[in-house]
Amino acid sequence: DVRHGPILYMEDVTVSFDGFKAINKLNLTIDDGELRCIIGPNGAGKTTMMDIITGKTRPNEGSVWFGSRHNLLHMNEPEIASLGIGRKFQKPTVFEALSVFENLELAMAADKRIIPTLTARLTGEVKDRIDEVLETIGLTALRYQPAGILSHGQKQWLEIGMLLMQRPRLLLVDEPVAGMTEQEMERTAELLTGLAGKQSVVVVEHDMGFVRSIARQVTVLHQGSVLAEGTMDQVSSDPSVVEVYLGA
Ligand code: ADP
């Protein structure tokens, strides 16, 4: 577990949509190598927060830093992505007609900004990386199968693998276990906790059992600000959290 201080630093960030503050003086620090869960009721600002980090939404006020050197407010979406910030949306989007292996290959090609030709000879380095990622996501045995035959959970892991091809420093993951079986959820917990340490992982998730099983630190958002932060035990016994969220 190598930690060098914050990888992401947001200070007093505000985002208004037609005068409505979806994010309201949000302060958030994510440490290098940390696995953080973000919870909060619908409309709390979780999606908007992710959109700010990736540069999709511009704050009206505040500052957002990646490490100590990169002011994200001075960068556009592709520039931010190229720093090593990867985002996994809720629905899996893999190329169903291509094999698991080819999906990972394409993800690598995208990184190098070349037009990928699937018949192109792979460099040893890329092959090694694909093998490594296949192991990490537990799909080695299915490598030559079309992605279309994978289960919902396996597709989610493949998409995480596609992000891993580019060795991200920060992974943003939106509701990874929605629609998964119990077994798939357990495997996903192992996957995400295994990734932390090597990179930072921020997970937005509604399933409280899952959050409890993976997160050391939980941030509760409410009305665009941090309502509570701490372990799941700490935040779930916080009366303000119980009132707005868990008790609802
Ligand atoms: P969450 O992901 O926690 O459910 P969101 O970030 O999606 O919350 O939304 C926070 C608030 O901002 C909600 O009240 C939502 O209706 C509002 N909002 C989000 N995006 C927009 C937008 N593009 N225009 C207007 N209002 C928005």
Automatic annotation (TrEMBL):
Keywords on record: ATP-binding, Nucleotide-binding, Transport
Q: Which residue positions does the secretion signal occupy?
A: none
Among SMART domains, the record links this protein to: AAA
GO MF terms listed in the record are: ATP binding; ATP hydrolysis activity
| Protein species of origin | Vreelandella subterranea
Q: Which domain of life is it from?
A: Bacteria
Q: Which SUPFAM superfamilies match?
A: P-loop containing nucleoside triphosphate hydrolases
What's the protein name? Urea transport system ATP-binding protein
Q: Which PANTHER family match?
A: CONSERVED COMPONENT OF ABC TRANSPORTER FOR NATURAL AMINO ACIDS-RELATED, HIGH-AFFINITY BRANCHED-CHAIN AMINO ACID TRANSPORT ATP-BINDING PROTEIN
Q: Does the keyword Transport apply?
A: yes
Q: Name one GO cellular component term.
A: plasma membrane
Gene3D superfamilies according to UniProt: P-loop containing nucleotide triphosphate hydrolases
Domain ABC transporter span(s) in chain numbering: 8-248
List the Pfam families. ABC_tran, BCA_ABC_TP_C
